[in-house]
Design goal:
The chain has about 475 residues and is mainly alpha-helical. The chain has 19 helices and no strands.
């Protein structure tokens, strides 16, 4: 099996195991927008976003280090896992002392304890999940995704529909899912056998923290880019508009849902083939197909953005969730560049250049904050979406030139510019809705698909090759 076939095989396993679960999770948007009003949905989303930025801080970003070091045979798996767990326990102890401070903010008042419990189980679940993947248990990793989502669905129906627990029910559903996931992974994969305090050594801790430490501010900065616009919209335009904006974000997340399935497999392949003589060609082929499929998928989502919005969110005119389709095309553009930035992060992981990841994330955060100040007072949620898109595009522009100097692969700059132009034109048409809007969108979608077909077919042929392609 050549490296292309292994990448495709792992991607297929993750897709089979996770796609149904992720797709089911995506349709929960209808449940959330039906059970929560715009203010409640806004608060629930802020709690979710807060934990996303807290867990890399609390764990010292060991969830990333556990993959990078756990896949390398020269490192003792017991030392890697024990170091990550001990680091997380220390971080959670500090967080326990500081968590009451969240009550000082009106947005978090009454939720500080729930926020801590949410973060607690999220941290351990993330560590266990990534370690299982590092050990090569891809089927278990995928199965865990299915069971976790089913648990969330069942808990949401119980807590939101029957018990009507609102925001608390939303968070409790995730807590229960994470707790069961961590317990299941530990028992099935025997993770407790890798946990032994005598394997916690200063040397391995120094190596892992040297790798992970720059990723902590990188994650915070990345969170600023992806989530700070919510706080700007709330402070300048109110909770209700942020609720609509948060719901509009869910449809573009379809792109991230698909690319995450691939990235989970790609991250493993990139590390496994880090010393391969044909690494540059491998990256060129995979990146070409990835960026082409991404552009085509984005064009398809923009084409269907209005019917998808009416399908997936509550249509109650008093809640105004459906109005979010006006923001979605711009957020699709933002998500395209975020997905491309995610791909470039694999180079930093392979080359252990996590400082570069931090610095490029800083560029995105600075651009985002400046443009939020300029755009949101004038254009509201439209301005927030545009600021986010510009921030991710700026980060990608810097990253693609940086990473191609670390691993010399062909990035296809001309193809990327043409794709960006096609998607931007589609976004403008979808927002302004001129006459014959769907005719124009269909034509542009077909043009985008045809333009990108070559790169996808070329890589697909590599997957079908039976001979060993390790040197290709």
């Amino acid at each position: 099996m050549n490296k292309y076939q292994k990448l495709a095989g792992n991607t297929l396993i993750f897709a089979i195991g996770s796609f149904g679960a992720k797709f089911l999770s995506f349709f929960l948007i209808r449940l959330y927008t039906g059970c929560l009003n715009t203010d409640e949905y806004s608060t629930a989303d802020l709690l979710y976003q807060t934990v996303n930025v807290l867990y890399p801080i609390v764990t010292l970003s060991m969830a990333d280090a556990i993959i990078r070091f756990g896949m390398v045979k020269s490192y003792d798996s017991r030392s890697v896992y024990t170091t990550a767990i001990v680091s997380t326990v220390m971080g959670l102890a500090v967080f326990a002392l500081l968590s009451p401070l969240f009550n000082l903010s009106g947005m978090y008042q009454g939720y500080s304890f729930l926020l801590y419990v949410y973060c607690y189980f999220s941290c351990f679940r993330q560590l266990a999940s990534n370690f299982v993947r590092a050990k090569g248990y891809v089927k278990l990793f995928a199965a865990d995704g299915i069971l976790s989502t089913l648990t969330i669905v069942i808990c949401n129906v119980i807590f939101l529909v029957f018990l009507k627990m609102g925001i608390t029910g939303y968070i409790l559903s995730i807590i229960v899912s994470d707790a069961l996931s961590f317990t299941g992974l530990t028992l099935i994969a025997g993770l407790h056998k890798y946990l032994d305090i005598k394997y916690f050594t200063k040397n391995i801790f120094k190596e892992m923290i040297k790798y992970s430490a720059p990723l902590i501010p990188a994650y915070v900065l990345w969170w600023v880019t992806s989530a700070s616009d919510r706080w700007f919209v709330i402070s300048l335009k109110g909770e209700a508009e942020n609720g609509i904006y948060s719901a509009a974000y869910k449809i573009p997340s379809l792109l991230m849902m698909f690319t995450t399935l691939f990235f989970q497999a790609w991250q493993m392949s990139a590390i496994e083939n880090r010393n391969d003589a044909g690494l540059s060609r491998f990256y060129s082929k995979v990146y070409g197909a990835y960026s082409s499929l991404l552009a085509t998928a984005a064009a398809g989502i923009i084409l269907l953005v209005k019917p998808l919005t009416y399908l997936l969110v509550d249509n109650d005119p008093e809640k105004n969730y459906v109005f979010g389709y006006h923001y979605t095309p711009i957020l699709v553009i933002a998500m395209v560049f975020q997905c491309l930035c995610q791909f470039t992060s694999s180079v930093y992981n392979v080359k252990k250049k996590t400082v570069n990841a931090m610095l490029t994330s800083l560029i995105a955060a600075v651009v985002n904050i400046i443009l939020n100040f300029l755009f949101i007072p004038k254009w509201g949620a439209y301005g927030a979406a545009a600021a986010t898109a510009a921030a991710y595009a700026s980060c990608f522009a810097v990253r693609i030139f940086d990473v191609t100097n670390l691993i010399h692969f062909k990035a296809g700059h001309v193809r990327m510019l043409i794709n960006a132009l096609l998607i931007c034109v589609m976004a403008v048409i979808a927002i302004t809705e001129p006459k014959l809007v769907y005719l124009w969108l269909i034509l542009l979608f077909l043009l985008t698909a045809a333009f990108n077909a070559g790169a996808v077919i070329s890589t697909f042929k590599k997957i079908l090759e039976r001979k060993n392609a390790s040197n290709s």
